[in-house]
Structures are given as C-alpha cells and as structure tokens.
C-alpha cells in the first residue's frame, strides 16, 4: 500500500480560500520548524569546508586530478551511498538517536580533516564526514517528508511547499557557509574545518535539548524484507537513477567549476561568490518557483524541465569556451552555468522528494528516502571519477562540458512515465497542466 494517493486532498488544499495567501512558515508545527532550521545549520557547517576541498587536495596535499575526483566522489558515495543504512536505522530506532550520532560523527570527521596531511588520512576523514550525513540527513529528510504529507492532508497546501521551504533554508546555509569558509581560509583550511565542527556541536546540543524522544505517528519497524520489496519497485529505482544524474551534475560545482574559474580569473577567489549566487537564488526564488511549477506541471514534467535546464547550463560554458575569455567577461559563462543549474535544482529537488512518499511503503519512508540517495550516490561515485579523468585527458574544454551536458539531458528518459500522485489539475487557465 502506498501513501496518500488522494487527489481530492490536493484539490481541497488548492481551493482553500486562505491557504494560498498564508505564509507557509506560520503554519508549520514546532517539529517541522526545528527540522528545517537544522538543515540551515547543517549546510552552514558543511559548506564552510566543501567548496574549498578540491583546491586543498590538489595544492596542499598534491593529489592528481583523477584522485581528487575520486575522493570527492568517495565523499558523496559515503554520504549518499550509505543513506539507505541511515534510513533503515531511522525506521528501526527513530529520528533522535540517529541525528545525534550523525552530529558526533561529523564533528570528529571535520576535526580529523583539518589535521589530515596524508592521502589515507584525508580519505578516512572524508569517509567519516560522508557517513555522518548518511545518518542525520535521512532522519531529517524522511521526517520532513512525512510531516509535509500530514500538513497536506490537513488542507494547508501542497506538500511541495514545505519541501521547497526546507530546500530554501538549506540553500541559505549554502549561501552563508562558503562566505564563512572564504573568510576562514585567510587563516588556513584547518580553521574552516574546525569552524564547521563547531557548527555541528551547536546542532548536537540543540537536538539533544529540543528533539522529542518519540514523535507522534512515527512507528518503528522491526520486521525484515523491506529492501527486497524496494528492489522490485522499478518506478522508484527509475526515479533514483534520474535523481542521480542531477547529483552528478551538481557535483561539478566542486570539480569542473573550480577549474573553469581558475582559468578565467587566475584564482579561485570568485568561487565563493558563485556559490553565494546559487544559494541566494534558491533562498529568494525557491518558493515562487515551486508554487509556479505546482500550478502548471506534474512531478515528472517538473523534473524534466529541471534536468533540461541543468543540461543547458553546461552547454553555455561549452559554447563560450572556444573564445577563451578571461577576467570578468570570462566568468560570465560560469555564472550562467550556476544560474541554470540552480534553476534546474529548484525544480528537481522538491519534485523528487515529493514523489518518494507516493512510491514508498507506509512504514518505510526512511528506507526509501535513504535509497533515493544511495543509488544516486553510486552514480556519482562512478561518474565523478570519469569526469575527473576528463580534466587529465587533455580533451578540448568544449568536449568536456558537452559530455557533462549530455548526462542530465539523457536522464529525462529514465523518469517514470506516469506519476501515481501528481498535483491536482488547477482551475482552467489556458496554461499547460500536469
């Protein structure tokens, strides 16, 4: 039995005379507010370090390009790839203990990375950092999704609005984190790592104090067999593969983009501002974009539009690369890539997260939420090594960026054809609907 296949609920939420005008935040429960603010703090601590990791590995540690790409992919895989473990633990033990354990692991990982000077130590720290997220992220994301479904059932509006707010607050952290990290890099990379660890120490303290030990309506699952059912769910696995292509494209912010910025500007200083641009766009535009897409597109069409926008972002750099512009003008294609990638992300992420509850078993939302990231994390692990190798093969830059553009474009064909629970059709307006 899948959850909430109830179109009248969605339609009722849309036609409510008050819900379209009420502020989403004002109608959230205290638990949802805590979880959304947690995502803000997570990303502040994380993105104070991650955007500068590739440069640190290549310059301070002296790793080759393929190894840098492999380490970045390993970090993503240890995070995304092990989400299924974190999701299973959440279903079995509840949200609170898994979030607290993840915060402890992230604190230790960042502290270790700050002092790591050899390849094995860097890999160990990166694995611990990724596994920490594999614990707390499925816990937070699955509970936000579950609470968003309940919020929708109560007639407050479409669940995608809650998930869009979750994404927007996460991106606010992504905006603040690189700026904080850029300032700390004037000291050294270790200072940025220790600051990130400090942020997660604050999160640990806050959750130990505020997170309920038992969340009403959350049932802990003891029986086995959930993974076998999941592996037979072809529609869900297709969604995972398409979402993985998005994550692989997003990972190029840390691999392909720094190389392009270094070429155009002679340093990576503008990188912080490009990350800030991406985050600011999401903070300011995520909710309007989600509302616009919800009125016109079903979940599949929303993801299709997002993936094609991401492909267009890579194509912009590919088209401009033969001119070899430098300076401020040379950064414009990179900025265009960031803008289009971010717009695509604003369509893909809430739609994918909103789709999962319709494909999941009622009591195993944590497992399915984790599996979404685990399958996509495996794609990123393989794909990041391949894209890292593109930097070392001496291929024309245009070819490299066109190859990257092809990945999200081809992923459109992987999306499930008939969403089982898309948004209800809006009132007739003459505009295309889902």
What does this structure look like?
With 434 residues, this protein is mainly alpha-helical. It has one domain: MFS general substrate transporter like domains (Growth Hormone, Chain: A, Up-down Bundle), CATH 1.20.1250.20. Helix content is 75%, strand content 0%. The protein has helices at 7-15, 30-47, 53-60, 65-81, 83-93, 95-115, 119-153, 159-184, 189-210, 226-231, 234-251, 256-265, 269-296, 299-320, 327-359, 365-392, 397-411. Helix 2 packs parallel to helix 8 (159-184), helix 7 packs across helix 16 and helix 11 runs antiparallel to helix 17. The chain is globular. Residues 1-22 and 419-434 have low confidence and may be disordered. The chain crosses the membrane at residues 31-54, 60-77, 98-115, 121-141, 162-183, 189-210, 236-253, 273-293, 305-325, 331-353, 365-386, 398-415. InterPro entries: MFS (IPR011701), MFS_dom (IPR020846), MFS_trans_sf (IPR036259), MFS_Transporters (IPR050171). It is found in: Cell membrane.
Which range does the strand content fall in? under 5%
Structural classification: mainly alpha
Whole-number count of domains: 1
Annotated CATH architecture:
Up-down Bundle
What's the pLDDT, averaged over the residues?
A: 79
Euclidean distance between termini CA atoms: 24 Å
The CATH homologous superfamily is called MFS general substrate transporter like domains
Query: What is the third-level CATH name, the topology?
Result: Growth Hormone, Chain: A
Strand and helix order? HHHHHHHHHHHHHHHHH
Shape by Cα distribution = globular
Rg value: 21 Å
Percent of residues in helical segments? Answer: over 70%
List the total number of helices.
Answer: 17
* Low-confidence segments: 1-22, 419-434
Largest sheet: none
Oligomeric state, counting identical vs distinct chains: single chain
The CATH class, by name, is Mainly Alpha
Total beta-strand segments: 0
């Amino acid at each position: 039995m899948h959850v909430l296949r109830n179109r009248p609920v969605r339609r009722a939420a849309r036609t409510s005379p008050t819900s379209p005008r009420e502020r989403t935040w004002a109608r959230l429960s205290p638990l949802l507010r805590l979880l959304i603010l947690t995502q803000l703090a997570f990303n502040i601590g994380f993105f104070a370090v991650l955007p500068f990791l590739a440069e640190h590995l290549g310059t301070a540690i002296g790793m080759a390009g393929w190894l840098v790409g492999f380490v970045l992919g390993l970090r993503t895989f240890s995070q995304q790839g092990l989400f299924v473990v974190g999701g299973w633990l959440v279903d079995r033990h509840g949200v609170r203990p898994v979030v607290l354990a993840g915060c402890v692991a992230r604190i230790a990982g960042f502290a270790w990375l700050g002092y790591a000077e050899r390849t094995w130590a860097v890999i160990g720290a990166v694995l611990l950092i990724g596994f920490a997220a594999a614990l707390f992220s499925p816990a937070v994301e699955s509970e936000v999704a579950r609470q968003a479904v309940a919020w929708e059932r109560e007639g407050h509006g479409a669940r995608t609005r809650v998930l869009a707010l979750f994404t927007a607050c996460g991106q606010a952290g992504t905006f603040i984190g690189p700026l904080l990290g850029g300032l700390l890099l004037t000291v050294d990379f270790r200072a940025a790592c220790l600051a990130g660890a400090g942020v997660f120490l604050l999160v640990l303290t806050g959750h130990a104090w505020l997170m309920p030990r038992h969340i009403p309506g959350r049932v802990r699952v003891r029986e086995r067999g959930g993974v076998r059912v999941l592996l037979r769910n072809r529609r869900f696995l297709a969604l995972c593969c398409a979402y993985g292509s998005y994550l692989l494209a997003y990972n190029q912010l840390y691999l392909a983009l720094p190389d392009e910025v270094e070429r155009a500007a002679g340093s990576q200083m503008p990188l912080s501002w490009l990350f800030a641009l991406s985050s600011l766009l999401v903070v300011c535009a995520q909710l309007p974009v989600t509302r616009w897409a919800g009125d016109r597109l079903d979940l599949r069409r929303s993801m299709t539009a997002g993936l094609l926008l991401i492909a267009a972002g890579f194509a912009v750099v590919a088209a401009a690369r033969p001119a070899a512009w430098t300076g401020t003008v040379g950064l414009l294609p990179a900025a265009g890539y960031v803008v289009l990638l971010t717009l695509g992300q604003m369509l893909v992420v809430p739609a994918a997260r909103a789709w999962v509850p319709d494909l999941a078993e009622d009591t195993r939302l944590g497992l399915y939420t984790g599996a979404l990231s685990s399958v996509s994390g495996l794609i990123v692990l393989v794909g990041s090594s391949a894209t890292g190798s593109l930097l070392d093969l001496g291929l024309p830059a245009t070819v490299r960026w066109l190859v990257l553009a092809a990945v999200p474009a081809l992923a459109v064909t992987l999306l499930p054809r008939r969403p089982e629970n898309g948004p209800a059709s809006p009132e007739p307006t003459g505009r295309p609907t889902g």
